[in-house]
Write a structure and sequence with these properties.
Radius of gyration: 19 Å
CATH architecture of the largest domain: Alpha-Beta Complex
CATH class of the largest domain: Alpha Beta
Strand content: 15-25%
Largest sheet: 7 strands, mixed
Helix content: 25-40%
CATH superfamily of the largest domain: PurM-like C-terminal domain
Order of helices and strands: HEEHEHEEEHHHEHEHEHEEEH
Distance between the termini: 13 Å
Length: about 300
């Protein structure tokens, strides 16, 4: 897991008088029938204008937040957008053209935000989702014997980013996966509406292994899965599949009955939840994999 980010989160939890809402993609406010999430994208960390336009960036930025709501089992409704950096009229026009197109696609209303100057472009979005009638997920709900299932491809975005860094004009399935991610809306909503038992679901924004480590930390369980079963595009490298970020695919732990009941053809079983607090891929512990040269430098990090 991202050690520096995890340490920061632990400091925050230990400092706040009430940290009970922290630990999932979204904060679930049961008394208000809603969930709330916020994300920030920073120029030079999450995006590079050498190969992304303000229009495409806007759509991706909003999708990043929509993905969190979907992965919580809720329906995205409203968003606020805060922009800072060296803004000009052309950037604002193209950025909000992308925001409007994406908002219309997902039925979201933009209800406010803020604009301010700065050295680099920063995008902070707060999104609110409707939870009424949905079974909301939690990372705490991965239980021994549950099926570990995935929806969407893994590692494609990481491969696409490498290609764009080598050739900013590259256009293929991998670069499209990085610049214009496809969200697993239908599958997420089928799970939220069909699951009868508590379940865990998150997106793979920070990578598959990172998602499993969050489940392990919050649920106190472990996982065994098989690499060949993980959905991926042909040509994606082993390390990218396990550790590459920004795919926004779904990672789920569901009871066997719920998995059968939901019946989503795009939800692929790849393993199961186990009692031991370990992550085993083809019976090899993840730390052993991390120590191999094939891993080094692949994990998605928000902090260097």
């Amino acid at each position: 897991m991202q050690n520096k980010e995890l340490k920061f989160i632990e400091i925050i939890k230990n400092t706040l008088s009430n940290s009970s809402y922290l630990g999932d993609d979204c904060a679930y406010l049961a008394d208000l029938n809603c969930c709330v999430s916020a994300d920030t994208l920073v120029e030079g960390v999450h995006f590079n204008f050498d190969f992304i336009t303000p229009y495409i960036l806007a759509k991706k930025a909003l999708k990043v937040n929509i993905s969190d709501v979907l992965a919580s089992g809720a329906k995205p409704l409203y968003a606020t957008i805060c922009l800072s950096g060296k803004l000009d009229e052309n950037f604002i026009s193209e950025f909000y053209r992308g925001i409007d197109e994406c908002a219309l696609e997902f039925g979201i209303k933009i209800i406010g935000g803020d604009l301010t100057g700065g050295e680099k472009i920063n995008i902070s979005i707060c999104i609110i989702g409707d939870t009424k009638g949905f079974n909301i997920s939690s990372r705490k709900n991965a239980k021994e014997g549950y099926i570990l299932a995935l929806c969407g491809n893994f590692g494609a975005s990481a491969r696409g980013l490498k290609m764009l860094l080598e050739d900013k004009k590259a256009q293929n399935d991998f670069t499209r996966a990085h610049l214009e991610p496809v969200l697993q809306t239908e599958c997420a909503q089928k799970i939220a509406l069909g699951a009868k038992e508590p379940y865990a679901m998150t997106d793979s924004s920070d990578g598959l292994v990172n998602a499993l480590e969050w489940f392990k930390k919050e649920s106190g369980t472990g996982f065994e899965l098989y690499y060949d079963k993980i959905p991926k595009l042909k040509g994606t490298k082993y390390s990218e599949v396990l550790f590459g970020g920004e795919d926004y695919s779904l990672v789920c732990a569901l009871s066997k009955d719920d998995f059968k009941r939901i019946g989503c053809s795009s939800l692929i079983p790849v393993g199961q939840v186990i009692k031991e607090k370990k992550i085993l891929i083809d019976n090899i512990e993840i730390e052993e994999i991390r120590n191999k040269d094939i891993y080094k430098g692949e994990e998605f990090l928000h902090f260097d």
